[in-house]
């Protein structure tokens, strides 16, 4: 699972040779060897064998960075470098990240740990790391120009501080951050409590992921860094459904999910089948009096939320951002709405010119999930996920929480689709359908809160078109 | 020179055998000019065969006309290749037949020039009492007789010139026909593609109409799609007009009418040859074989010999010789020559020689101009040919495949709902326009080839160089 790689060997390094070559061998000898991850899979939790004990987290489609103890100091080595991240099977992006992946590895420490972080810059430009949410000496906060000079390409800087406050944190560059974050430079940081904490419950499973977004033209691989809001790939840990792993739990497990938002918009993250409590924010654990049951937590930009719930309902439960565009993959935002448009005749005419043409969207977009049509290379199909009952019609920020009775403790492997007990799945009604009594709508428009000044010259007749069934006629 | 009647009173007793001898000797002097068996057409035929690989036929009889009609009918019965078109034009173009008649007219004049004018003969009888006076006179343009070899040579040269001119007509007609053929064929292909463009525009207009109908488009969006349609309809109308007029131009050159005008052209222009002709010594080739250059050279030579003629025979055209015989029944026959001689007393011929020299110099300059122009024209034709080749190849190998690839990628993007059907249709229009631009480039290549072929054997009619067609792409894209 973890592959070690001699940094100076350079084998497989995607980074510019100039950066790698300029890292001094002598200087590197004193550093912990950087650990590089080559796979985008969810790695099992890294149980600590040195330092203070803690309950490790599982990073969705990610991993935790190993460390070495050096005279009581936890030493980590982060390498900022260009990476290729598989965002979903068959679609790879050219990103910048840390130690082979974007986002970088999760850093897990324990409250009170003295932490020393070596940051080697293998990018072509200055970088730095800001330790988002940490209490630390001002000179360790990582804002280029304000707290420190930028780390030049090829150089290694050292950050050192005590992880004072337990909670959920992030790290990201604070040098050319618009570009570097749009390119995927970010990572998670967990500070576990030292011993029992009155506001932090022990949980059986602890998941974490970052919300991030990219704008990569279909068929291309590099994000467009100038995009501000019109992203086309909405991801969790730079993975898009169906490329995201499920969150596998054992029935009656206490589950914690930590989410950080490094996109440029908020995300209402919604869990099916359970209620959760927000037990922690950017500022640490929440007072118990403030906690309320939710099924959706809106996570604003730059925020972190920690949700706790008891997995007491078996099944495969959807877990997703509730902004419906965020559960799609790349799609055109200027595509005209074709719903209800009769294509008879025209379709044939178009096919004469464009033989591969197929009518789409005149019944809606779900058709997309049923058609197997070639897409541009290196493009994640929209809504491509398939479940036991067919197309899920989702993409992007969507995953499944799988609650199973027979899941072993500590086993995160996918148990497959949920086997529903008989009679517990929605079914087709086959009886006779009497004409329902319907409320007769008043044709005249309602009065509104105020009389309108100007009215349309003519009442526009708007008809509802009902599907006549099937793709007949083309 | 007017006949100079020599009449003398003479006694009777004529001696006709002597007169005969004079006539025979005159005929021998003059050489016996007669009609050639081919009427000078063999040279024209040879030019058509050697330079074009085509037959020409001079329709001098109904039988000729019938065999031409039969051959033309056969050629027109199947889709016309460019070689067939040239062959039809060479057989069937009435203007060319009219030019052939020039050969007949000229040859008749040449033959006429090679014959002695009929001698004049006068006979008078009068009596005065017992005395009868018989007056007989034979008058003959002796100057003509003396000058006849020279005149014959000049006329023969003139005949050669006419043969050259007719040959030129053959070559020009062939070149014009080739160009008209490719223009008409390309125009037909263009119409086909413009129909496809309109079909794409039709589809988007119709779809936009239905979109508005169900409330998915507003009036502005619908109107936009319909403006593409309106524009495409206009383009199609223009293309159809071009097709009709270019076809009529070809019809005129082929000399066809009535049901014959229903001939079919092939589906496509011939493919671009695998590689362009390499003609490093194109100027030498043109100078060696161009008919206009050869003609100019001959004209210069001829003028030179005329000049020499003028110089050596300053008086020749003032020399007149008459044969005279007077007989009377009373007196012995009076015989002798009567020569009128103009003395170079006031006109030493200097002015005439100067004129001839000026004419000669003029011809030299003309010949030089012809050669310079020929070199330039053939260079222009060759570079035009080469760049037309490169442009057509670029269209074929780069522009069209690129647009094809764009179209394919756009279908993939449409599949992924990354673009809508209107963008897809707009792109289809662009792609079709690029195919059409490629057809036009191919047409221009074949026209340039015809110009080059012509420039190598005669004076081409090169089209005025146009600037780069910047507007073409914008116009073709349609959005
Ligand atoms: Cu979202």
UniProtKB/TrEMBL annotation, chain B:
Record's keyword annotation contains Cytoplasm: no
Superkingdom classification of source: Bacteria
Database matches in InterPro entries: MdtP/NodT-like
Keyword tags: Lipoprotein
Hydrolase among keywords: no
Gene Ontology terms, MF aspect: efflux transmembrane transporter activity
The protein's name in its UniProt record: Putative copper resistance-related lipoprotein
PANTHER family linked to this entry: BLR4935 PROTEIN, OUTER MEMBRANE CATION EFFLUX PROTEIN
């Amino acid at each position: 699972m973890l592959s070690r790689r001699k940094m100076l060997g350079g084998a497989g390094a995607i980074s510019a040779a100039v950066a790698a070559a300029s890292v001094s061998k002598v200087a590197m000898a004193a550093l912990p060897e950087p650990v590089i991850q080559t796979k985008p899979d969810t790695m099992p939790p890294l149980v600590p064998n040195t330092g203070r004990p803690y309950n490790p987290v599982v990073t969705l489609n990610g991993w935790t960075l190993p460390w070495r103890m050096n005279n009581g100091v936890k030493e980590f080595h982060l390498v900022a470098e260009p990476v290729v991240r598989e965002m979903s099977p068959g679609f790879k992006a050219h990103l910048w990240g840390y130690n082979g992946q974007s986002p970088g590895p999760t850093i897990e420490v324990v409250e009170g740990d003295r932490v020393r972080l070596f940051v080697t810059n293998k990018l072509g430009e200055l970088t730095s790391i800001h330790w988002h949410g940490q209490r630390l000496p001002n000179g360790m906060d990582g804002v280029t120009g304000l707290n420190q000079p930028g780390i030049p390409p090829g150089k290694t800087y050292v950050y050192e501080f005590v992880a004072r406050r337990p909670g959920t944190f992030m790290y990201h560059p604070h040098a050319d951050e618009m570009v570097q974050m749009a390119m995927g430079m970010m990572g998670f940081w967990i500070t576990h409590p030292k011993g029992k904490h009155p506001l932090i419950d022990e949980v059986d499973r602890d998941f974490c992921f970052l919300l991030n977004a990219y704008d990569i033209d279909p068929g291309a691989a590099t994000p467009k860094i100038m995009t501000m809001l019109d992203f086309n790939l909405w991801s969790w840990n730079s993975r898009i459904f169906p490329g995201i792993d499920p969150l596998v739990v054992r029935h009656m497990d206490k589950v914690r999910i930590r989410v950080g938002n490094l996109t440029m918009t908020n995300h209402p993250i919604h869990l099916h089948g359970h209620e959760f409590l927000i037990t922690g924010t950017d500022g640490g654990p929440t007072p118990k009096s403030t906690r309320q049951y939710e099924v959706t937590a809106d996570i604003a930009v730059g925020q972190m939320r920690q949700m706790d719930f008891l997995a007491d309902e078996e099944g495969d439960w959807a877990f997703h951002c509730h902004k419906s565009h965020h559960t799609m993959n790349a799609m055109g935002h200027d595509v005209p709405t074709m719903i209800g448009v009769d294509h008879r005749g025209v379709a044939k005419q178009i096919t004469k010119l464009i033989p591969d043409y197929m009518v789409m969207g005149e019944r809606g977009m779900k058709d997309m999930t049923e058609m197997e049509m070639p897409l541009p290379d290196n493009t994640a199909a929209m809504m491509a996920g398939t479940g036991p009952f067919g197309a899920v019609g989702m993409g992007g920020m969507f995953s499944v929480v799988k609650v199973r009775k027979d899941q072993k403790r500590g086993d995160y492997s996918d148990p497959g689709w949920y086997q529903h007990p008989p009679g517990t799945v929605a079914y087709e009604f086959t009886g006779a359908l009497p004409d329902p009594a319907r409320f007769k709508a008043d044709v005249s428009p309602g009065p509104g809160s105020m009389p309108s000044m100007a009215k349309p010259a003519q009442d526009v007749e708007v008809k509802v078109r009902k599907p006549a069934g099937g793709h007949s006629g083309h | 020179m007017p006949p100079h009647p020599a009449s003398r009173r003479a006694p009777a007793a004529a001696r006709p055998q002597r007169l005969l001898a004079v006539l025979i000797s005159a005929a021998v002097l003059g050489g016996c000019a007669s009609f050639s068996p081919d009427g000078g057409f063999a040279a024209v035929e040879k030019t058509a065969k050697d330079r074009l690989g085509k037959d020409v036929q001079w329709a001098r009889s109904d039988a000729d006309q019938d065999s031409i009609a039969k051959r033309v009918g056969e050629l027109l019965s199947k889709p016309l290749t460019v070689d067939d078109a040239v062959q039809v034009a060479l057989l069937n173009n009435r203007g060319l037949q009219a030019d052939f008649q020039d050969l007949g007219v000229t040859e008749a004049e040449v033959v006429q020039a090679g014959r002695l004018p009929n001698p004049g003969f006068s006979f008078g009888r009068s009596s005065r009492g017992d005395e009868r006076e018989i007056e007989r006179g034979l008058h003959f343009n002796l100057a003509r007789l003396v000058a006849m070899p020279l005149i014959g040579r000049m006329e023969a040269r003139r005949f050669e010139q006419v043969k050259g001119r007719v040959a030129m007509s053959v070559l020009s007609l062939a070149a014009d026909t080739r160009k008209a053929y490719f223009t008409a064929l390309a125009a037909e292909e263009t119409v086909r593609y413009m129909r496809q463009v309109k079909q794409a525009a039709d589809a988007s207009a119709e779809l936009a109409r239905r979109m508005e109908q169900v409330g998915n488009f507003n009036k502005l969006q619908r109107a936009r799609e319909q403006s593409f349609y309106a524009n495409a309809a206009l383009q199609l109308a223009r293309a159809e007009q071009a097709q009709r007029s270019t076809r009529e131009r070809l019809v005129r050159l082929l000399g066809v009418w009535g049901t014959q005008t229903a001939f079919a052209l092939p589906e496509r222009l011939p493919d671009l040859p695998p590689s362009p002709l390499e003609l490093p010594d194109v100027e030498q080739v043109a100078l060696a074989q161009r008919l206009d250059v050869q003609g100019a050279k001959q004209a210069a030579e001829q003028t030179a010999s005329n000049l020499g003629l003028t110089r050596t025979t300053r008086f020749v055209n003032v020399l007149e010789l008459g044969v005279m015989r007077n007989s009377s029944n009373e007196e012995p026959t009076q015989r002798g020559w009567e020569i009128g001689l103009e003395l170079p007393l006031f006109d030493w011929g200097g002015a005439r020689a100067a004129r001839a020299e000026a004419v000669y110099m003029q011809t030299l300059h003309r010949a030089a101009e012809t050669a310079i122009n020929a070199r330039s024209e053939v260079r222009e034709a060759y570079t035009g040919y080469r760049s037309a080749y490169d442009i057509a190849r670029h269209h074929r190998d780069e522009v069209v495949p690129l647009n094809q690839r764009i179209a394919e990628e756009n279908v993939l993007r449409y599949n992924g709902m990354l673009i809508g059907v209107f963008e897809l249709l707009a792109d289809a229009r662009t792609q079709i326009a690029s195919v059409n631009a490629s057809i036009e480039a191919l047409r221009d290549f074949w026209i340039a080839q015809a110009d080059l072929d012509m420039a190598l054997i005669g004076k081409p009619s090169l089209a005025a160089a146009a600037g780069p067609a910047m507007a073409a792409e914008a116009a073709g894209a349609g959005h």
